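Reviewer comment 2.1 asked that we show a complete input and output for one of the modelled complexes. We chose the pyridoxal-5'-phosphate case, as it is the one discussed in the main text.
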Amino acid sequence: MFKKDFPYFQNNEIAYLDNAATTHKPKEVIDSQSEYYEKYCANTHRSSFGHANKATQKYEESRKILKEFINAKLNEEIIFTKGVTESINFIASSFVKNFKTVIISSLEHHSNIVPWHMQGRKLGDGLAVVNCNKNLDFDFEHFEQLLKENPKAFVSITHISNAFGKIHDIKAIIELAHKYKAVVMIDGAQSLAHIKVDMQELDVDFFAISGHKTFAPTGVGAIYVKQKYLKNLEAYQTGGATINQVDFNSSTLLDSPYKFEAGTQNIAGIIGFGTALQYLTRVGYENIEIIEKDVFNYLDKELKKIPNIIFYNDIEDSIGSRSFNFENITPDDIGILVDKMGVSLRVGHHCAQPIMKKLGIKGTIRVSLSFYNDYNDINNLINALKKALSMLQ
Ligand SMILES: *Cc1c(COP(=O)(O)O)cnc(C)c1O
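Response of the prediction step:
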């Protein structure tokens, strides 16, 4: 029903089922890019001629749109980045470096694991990992034990697992962490495409956002920083546009958010991000929820009819992605075959090798949905899977 808003689907007859990797962009987001380049291309926050002012105004408008979208209190709590990876690296290197322990979950994306290793943290030595059970459920008891053993830890946990679609109860995680005086960052890369997040309701300290997984252009994202942490947050990059005053002896920096947005930003992308969020507001999370539940359940029902399929988590407490394997079949072979039949999905470790190792597998076949997917996509997928299996068995 919503595919008509996305030019990609006018140009391709493909069952696109890789939305956890990136989503498609609605026409108005694509148009907002060319509009900036064709009609008012100029740098922001620097020059003061007409188009420079317009570019700055549109850029700042995107900040306001995102602020309202996630219900942050202030514009300066929204700092634009390249995406979740940069958001996490920024907070890791500027804020978390002095924390003794970082606590993550078993289901983290490499972007929320590798930056901690780069700080010299290892399991049991600056890094702790919360267990999960066989259904990939977050182990709250273990989490509480880790919080007790590691006072004032930094907790960095994904909201929705990109590899399995598992949703963490982040409200409960944040509450428990705060009880033990821990500071919490949520990796929200998969969140905004599927469910409403509200910074006040969650009372989260840092929340990382990905634009390209939320119908916006690639190379844009943000980090929400609760106001009380802004004054102790150091810039991890500095240079043009971050300064108040510079001479050859010293420099003084501006306040948030400018102090954190060094150099010329992805102006077109950030303007497109605002446009994407406005589009998403028009579609509405109520509609997204209804469509996605329906198609997700249909997907699950149809997959379960295929013999020898292996799942790793129940569909309850999951959203967007379904990950599975077939007995004695390598996921990569399935990926190659279904691609030839017009089905785009991802096979492999989905940037989450540690959990794959824990499960004793190399990877999975992952189908990840967005609200524009329909029964037709699922039917094409199931037909392609059946054909591929008959060729491989
Ligand atoms: C995609 C993803 C990331 C990385 O996000 P980018 O915006 O592409 O840098 C991090 N965590 C999760 C859970 C993801 O799905």
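The chain has a mean pLDDT of 96. We note this here for comparison with the apo prediction described in Section 3.2.
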